[in-house]
UniProtKB/TrEMBL annotation:
Organism of provenance: Mariniflexile litorale
PANTHER family: GYLCOSYL HYDROLASE 115 C-TERMINAL DOMAIN-CONTAINING PROTEIN, PTHR37842
Superkingdom, taxonomy of origin: Bacteria
Transmembrane feature ranges: none
Residue ranges annotated for the Gylcosyl hydrolase 115 C-terminal domain, each copy included: 810-982
One of the record's GO molecular function terms: hydrolase activity
Lineage, opening ranks: Bacteria, Pseudomonadati, Bacteroidota, Flavobacteriia, Flavobacteriales
InterPro entries: GH115 (IPR031924), GH115_C (IPR041437), GH115_sf (IPR042301), Hex-like_dom2 (IPR029018)
The name this protein goes by in its record: Glycosyl hydrolase 115 family protein
Keywords in alphabetical order: Hydrolase, Signal
C-alpha cells in the first residue's frame, strides 16, 4: 500500500514538474512554426524600432523571417502601459498583473501567458512602464537568444540555430539603479567622425542621422538612455541636422551636452566671433541668451537634460573681467538664473520639472566649493580628474538635494599631462571602484562615460552601463572578473572565456602600471619630446626587460587564442581583444626597446642595433594591424575608424635610434645586475665585478649580460667555482647576427649545497648590508673564459641559520630594504566600524587593500585611531637599524568630499602613529605624476631601533584609502619605477 501511494505521488510530481516546465517555455522558431511579434502602431516609435531589431536578430540566427503585427499561434506581445491595445486588453481581462510595473521608471515585465486572445495559443508578453522599458524588454529577448549588444558594432555574428525555444520565468526588470545612463562621444576627429564621413555616411560627409541611428541602437541594446553628442570642430553641431533630434526621439534617447556646452548649445562650433562677438557673459550676455533661447525653443518638445552654468570655449575657463573667485561665483549664479528663466519662457513649464545638470568640472568645482548657490532641483554631476579618479562626491546634506547627483567619467581624454585617445587603458576594476563609490554616495541620477570613438572601448562601455542599469551584481571587486568572463563566454565561447579574461586582466594590470600612451615619458600642453624613462635597467631584474617579457607573453597568448576562435567570431575577437592587446603591447615595446637601444649603446654594445630593430618591428606591427583593421577587417566596414596616432604626438612616432659599429677584434663583454657600466677587464677587483649578495632568506636570482664587442664571434664558457652556483647557461657563441650579439644569463643558488654560516640566536649587526660579518658570508666566483681572456665574477651568499628566524612568517630585509605587497598583511585586525578588504584586479600587483566601508567617518585622533580603527600589521626582520624611510604607495584617489582626506596612520613597533596623507589638490605637478603613474607615494621617517624582529602597523584614518605597496628603506633601495619584488621569507 505504501509503495503504491509513494509511486503515485512521485508520478504526480513528475507530471506537475513537466507541466510547469512546459508552461514556462516559449517557442520562437520550431520546425515550421514561427512566432509573430504584436505591437500597437500607436505605441511609441522606439517600440516599433525594437521589434524590427528583434525580428532581424531572429532572422540572423535562424534564417527565418518573423512577421510583425500578424496574429499567430505563438506571439510575442509587447507594449507600453496605456499606449498599447494589446497590453491594456490583457490588463482588462486580468491576464497579467502590472502592479510591479505601473508608474515605475523604465521597468518591464516578461512572462508567458496562455490563450491571451482568440487565435493565440501562447504569448510571450512584454509589458513596459514607459516607451524605453518596452524597447528594452523586446531587446531582452535578443539577449536571451545570446545576441550580443555588439553584434553590429563589433561584428559579433550570432551562432546559427534551427530552433529557438526559450525557458521563461516571470520576471520584473528595473527600476534601473541610475536614472539617466549614457555616453559622451568625444575627441572623434581621428576615428568616428572620419569613418562616418568617408565610409558609413558619405552622403552627409559627417556624423549625421544615419550614424546616430546606429549609435542609438547600440545604446538601446545596452539599456542606456542618454547621449552627449560629438562636439569637436571636425563635426557639425548635432542640431545643425534637423533629423538628428527626431532620430534621437524615435529611439527614445535623451540628449544632453557636456560641461562646456550649456543649454544644448555647441559653443565650440556654433559660436561665430565675427557675427556674435566675444563669448563672455559679463559683456555679451544678450547674444549668448539668444543662442540659449533658440536652442530651447527647437528642443522643447523632446526629452533633454539641459546643462546649466557656463565655461569658456572648448574646455577652457570662463572669461570674466576680474580674476576674482567671488565675482566668478556671482556671475555663474546669474547665468544659471537667466538660463532657468529661458527654460520657463520657452517651454511654458516650471524649471524645477525640467531635467537640468550642473557639472563642476575643473575650475568650476572651485566655484562650487566657494559657495555657489545652486537650485535644489539641478543634478550635481561630479567628475573624475580625467584619469579615472573622482574628485568629489556628495556630502550627506548634498545627498538630500531634489536633483540628486551623477558622475561624468573618462576612459578617453585629450589634455595634460598626457592624452590617452587611442586605446582603452582605463582599468575596469578601477572604474568599478570609483563608480560603486559614487553609487554608495547617492550619485544615481546621471552617469555619463566619455568613451571617445566608442572603439576600442567596447568592454568598458558595457561594464559601465551594466553597472548603471543594476548595481546589485557588482557588490565586490571580483564581480568585474565574473562579468568579463560572462561577456567573453557570450562573445567568443566558453572554451576560451577564462583565458581571454585572464589575458585582458593582465593587459589591464600592465596598462595600470603605465598606460601605453604614456610610455614615451612625454607630456602635452605644451607638447614635449620623448623623455628619460624612470624604469631602471640595471637594478631589480631590469624593469625595462621585465616589461618587455610581460608584453611578449600577452601577445603570444592573444595570438594563440585567436586561432581557437570560431570563424564567425574572429572579427569580433580581433576588435574586442586582439587589436587592443597587440596595440598596447607594441606601443609599449616600441619605447621599451628604444630605451634598451639607448642604454646599451652608451655601453658600446653591438646589441643596440638589435634593440633598434625590435623597436622598429613593434612600430611596424602597429602599422600592419591598424591597416588590417581599417582596410581588410569585415571587408572594409571599419575603414578610417582606427587611427594609431591621434594628435600625432611624439609617443606615436618612430623613435630615432643609436647605431653602434666596431672594427675592433672580437672580445667578450660582461655587465652585471646592479651596475650601470660593464665589468672593466683591465682593473683587478673592479667594484663592478661582483654580483649583489644572495640572501638565503629571500632566494634571489640576478642577471649577467654577456655581449660581443668588436666584429666576428666569441665562444664563451661560464665555470662556477662552487657546485652551489647555478647558471641558466654555461656556454655559447656570440656573433654579429643581431639576435646573437648578447645573452642574458641568470644566476641563482642551490641552497641545499651552500656551507652554513654561524648558527646564532641574534642577527648580525651593521649599517650596510654589504658589511655583514664574514662569518655569515660565503664567497665564491664564476670564471668566464673566452679565447684570449678569463674574467672572474664574484659571488657572495649570506647564509646564516639564525634560530630566531626558524618558522618566521614575516618579511625579511634584503640589500638594505624590506618590500611588501600591501595585500599580504601578517594580521588584518577589524576595527570598531570598519575593516581592510582586498580588491582584486587593481594596482601594480593585481591586488590592493582598501579601508571599508567608505561611509565610515574619518578618525584623526591618534588615541582613537589605535583603539577603534582597523589596522594592518606586517611583521618584518632587519639585519640593520637606524632611521628608515617608510614608503607607502596608494591608489591616487581623492577625498570623498570636503571634510574628508586620503590618509592612514603608521608606526613601527610601539612608536607614536604618524599620519600619511596621499591627497593632491588641483592640477599640481604631484597630481600630474600620480596620474601618469597611477600611484601616490608618500614617505615618512621611522626608527628601527635594533636589528631583529619588528612590526609595521597601518591604521585607517579615512575610509576608501587603497594601499598597493610598501617599502621600508634602510638605505639600500636604489631608485626604481616600482618598488622591488616582495622580500618574502623563502620556505
Amino acid at each position: 500500500m505504501f509503495k503504491i501511494k509513494y509511486h503515485s505521488i512521485l508520478l504526480l510530481l513528475i507530471i506537475l514538474s513537466n507541466d510547469l516546465s512546459a508552461q514556462n517555455s516559449f517557442s520562437i522558431v520550431s520546425g515550421q512554426e514561427k512566432a509573430s511579434i504584436l505591437i500597437d502602431k500607436k505605441d511609441a516609435k522606439v517600440v516599433e524600432i525594437a521589434a524590427d531589431i528583434l525580428a532581424r536578430d531572429i532572422h540572423h540566427i535562424s534564417n527565418k523571417t518573423i512577421e510583425i503585427n500578424t496574429v499567430g499561434k505563438f506571439s510575442i506581445i509587447a507594449g507600453t502601459l496605456g499606449k498599447s491595445k494589446w497590453i491594456d486588453g490583457l490588463v482588462s481581462k486580468q491576464k497579467i498583473d502590472i502592479s510591479q510595473v505601473k508608474g515605475k521608471w523604465e521597468t518591464y515585465k516578461i512572462e508567458v501567458v496562455e490563450n491571451p486572445f482568440k487565435g493565440i495559443e501562447k504569448a510571450l508578453v512584454i509589458v513596459g512602464s514607459d516607451r524605453r522599458a518596452t524597447a528594452y524588454g523586446l531587446l531582452e529577448v535578443s539577449r536571451m537568444l545570446n545576441v550580443s549588444p555588439w553584434e553590429w558594432w563589433a561584428d559579433v555574428t550570432p551562432d546559427k540555430k534551427e530552433e529557438l525555444i526559450l525557458s521563461i520565468h516571470t520576471k520584473i526588470y528595473g527600476e534601473p539603479s541610475v536614472k539617466y545612463r549614457g555616453v559622451f562621444l568625444n575627441d572623434e576627429d581621428w576615428g568616428l567622425q572620419r569613418w562616418a564621413a568617408l565610409n558609413y555616411e558619405p552622403e552627409t560627409g559627417d556624423m549625421g542621422p544615419k550614424t546616430y541611428a546606429k549609435v542609438f541602437e547600440l545604446l538601446l541594446r545596452l539599456r542606456a538612455n542618454t547621449i552627449w553628442p560629438a562636439m569637436h570642430r571636425s563635426t557639425k553641431p548635432f542640431y545643425s541636422y534637423p533629423e538628428n533630434k527626431q532620430v534621437a526621439d524615435d529611439y527614445a534617447i535623451v540628449i544632453g551636452t557636456s560641461h562646456a556646452e550649456p543649454m544644448l548649445s555647441n559653443i565650440n562650433t556654433e559660436w561665430n566671433h565675427e557675427t556674435m562677438g566675444e563669448y563672455r557673459y559679463d559683456t555679451n550676455s544678450e547674444v549668448i541668451k539668444n543662442l540659449f533661447k533658440k536652442r530651447v525653443k527647437e528642443t522643447a518638445k523632446f526629452e533633454n537634460i539641459y546643462t546649466t552654468g557656463m565655461r569658456g570655449e572648448h574646455d577652457s575657463p570662463m572669461i570674466v573681467g576680474e580674476d576674482d573667485t567671488d565675482q566668478q561665483v556671482k556671475l555663474l549664479e546669474k547665468i544659471i538664473t537667466d538660463q532657468r528663466a529661458i527654460l520657463k519662457q520657452e517651454t511654458k513649464k516650471n524649471p524645477n520639472t525640467i531635467p537640468q545638470a550642473f557639472v563642476p568640472y575643473k575650475e568650476v568645482l572651485t566655484y562650487y566649493q566657494n559657495g555657489l548657490n545652486l537650485p535644489e532641483d539641478i543634478t550635481l554631476v561630479w567628475t573624475d580628474d580625467n584619469y579615472g579618479y573622482i574628485r568629489q562626491l556628495s556630502t550627506p546634506d548634498e545627498q538630500k538635494r531634489k536633483g540628486g547627483a551623477g558622475v561624468y567619467y573618462h576612459t578617453s581624454y585629450w589634455g595634460r599631462p598626457h592624452d590617452y585617445l587611442w586605446l582603452n587603458s582605463t582599468n575596469p576594476v578601477l572604474m568599478w571602484e570609483e563608480m560603486s563609490k559614487a553609487y554608495e554616495f547617492k550619485s544615481r541620477d546621471l552617469w555619463i562615460l566619455n568613451c571617445g570613438d566608442i572603439k576600442p572601448h567596447e568592454y568598458n562601455i558595457e561594464l559601465f552601463l551594466d553597472m548603471a542599469w543594476d548595481m546589485k551584481p557588482f557588490e565586490k571587486s571580483v564581480s568585474v572578473k565574473e562579468h568579463m568572463k560572462t561577456w567573453a563566454t557570450r562573445e567568443f565561447g566558453a572554451h576560451i572565456a577564462s583565458e581571454t579574461t585572464n589575458l585582458l586582466f593582465e593587459n589591464n594590470r600592465l596598462s595600470y602600471i603605465r598606460r601605453p600612451e604614456f610610455m614615451a615619458w612625454s607630456e602635452v600642453e605644451p607638447v614635449t619630446k620623448a623623455g628619460e624613462t624612470t624604469l631602471t635597467q640595471y637594478h631589480y631584474g631590469d624593469e625595462v626587460t621585465c616589461k618587455i617579457n610581460a608584453y611578449e607573453i600577452i601577445v603570444e597568448t592573444a595570438e594563440r587564442l585567436y586561432k581557437k576562435v570560431p570563424e564567425n567570431r574572429k572579427a569580433a575577437f580581433y576588435q574586442l581583444v586582439y587589436y587592443p592587446v597587440i596595440g598596447a603591447s607594441k606601443l609599449s615595446e616600441k619605447w621599451l626597446y628604444f630605451y634598451k637601444n639607448k642604454f646599451v649603446s652608451q655601453q658600446g654594445k653591438l646589441s643596440a642595433n638589435f634593440y633598434s630593430e625590435q623597436s622598429e618591428n613593434a612600430y611596424n606591427r602597429i602599422l600592419k594591424e591598424t591597416d588590417y583593421y581599417n582596410k581588410t577587417l569585415a571587408e572594409g566596414k571599419w575603414n578610417h575608424i582606427m587611427t594609431m596616432q591621434p594628435r600625432f604626438l611624439p609617443v606615436f612616432s618612430k623613435p630615432a635610434y643609436a647605431v653602434v659599429g666596431s672594427k675592433e677584434k672580437p672580445t667578450l663583454g660582461i655587465a652585471l645586475e646592479g651596475y650601470e657600466m660593464e665589468v672593466n677587464h683591465d682593473i683587478v677587483n673592479s667594484f663592478a665585478d661582483v654580483l649583489p649578495v644572495f640572501n638565503s632568506y629571500t632566494d634571489n636570482h640576478y642577471f649577467m649580460d654577456i655581449f660581443l664587442k668588436g666584429e666576428g664571434k666569441v665562444e664563451w664558457k661560464a665555470i662556477p667555482k662552487s657546485d652551489w652556483i647555478k647558471i641558466s647557461e654555461t656556454e655559447g657563441i656570440l656573433t654579429n647576427v643581431n639576435s646573437k650579439q648578447e645573452k642574458r644569463l641568470w644566476v641563482s643558488i642551490d641552497w641545499d649545497k651552500v656551507p652554513t654560516g654561524e648558527n646564532k640566536k641574534e642577527a648580525p649587526l651593521g649599517h650596510d648590508f654589504q658589511l655583514i660579518p664574514p662569518s655569515y658570508k660565503v664567497n665564491s666566483a664564476i670564471d668566464f673564459v673566452s679565447a684570449d681572456s678569463t674574467v672572474t665574477i664574484g659571488v657572495s651568499v649570506f647564509n646564516p641559520k639564525l634560530k630566531v628566524l626558524e618558522g618566521y612568517k614575516g618579511f625579511i630585509e634584503d640589500k638594505g630594504f624590506v618590500s611588501i605587497h600591501a595585500e599580504n598583511p601578517t594580521r588584518n585586525i577589524t576595527g570598531k566600524e570598519a575593516k581592510w578588504e582586498i580588491y582584486d584586479g587593481m594596482g601594480y600587483t593585481g591586488k590592493v587593500i582598501a579601508a571599508l566601508p567608505r561611509s565610515t567617518s574619518s578618525i584623526t585622533d591618534l588615541n582613537l585611531i589605535q583603539k577603534n580603527s582597523p589596522s594592518l600589521e606586517y611583521d618584518f626582520y632587519t639585519f640593520n637599524f637606524g632611521e628608515v624611510d617608510l614608503n607607502l604607495q596608494a591608489v591616487p584617489t581623492h577625498a570623498i568630499h570636503e571634510g574628508r582626506g586620503v590618509r592612514c596612520a603608521v608606526s613601527i613597533d610601539d612608536a607614536e602613529p604618524v599620519l600619511v596623507d596621499f591627497q593632491t589638490f588641483g592640477r599640481s605637478d604631484t597630481w600630474k605624476q600620480n596620474v601618469l603613474k597611477n600611484a601616490s607615494v608618500q614617505s615618512v621617517k621611522q626608527i628601527v631601533n635594533k636589528a631583529g624582529k619588528h612590526t609595521l602597523k597601518v591604521w585607517m584614518v579615512d575610509s576608501g584609502v587603497m594601499l598597493d605597496q610598501i617599502l621600508i628603506d634602510l638605505g639600500g633601495w636604489k631608485k626604481s619605477y616600482a618598488f622591488p619584488s616582495e622580500t618574502k621569507k623563502r620556505n
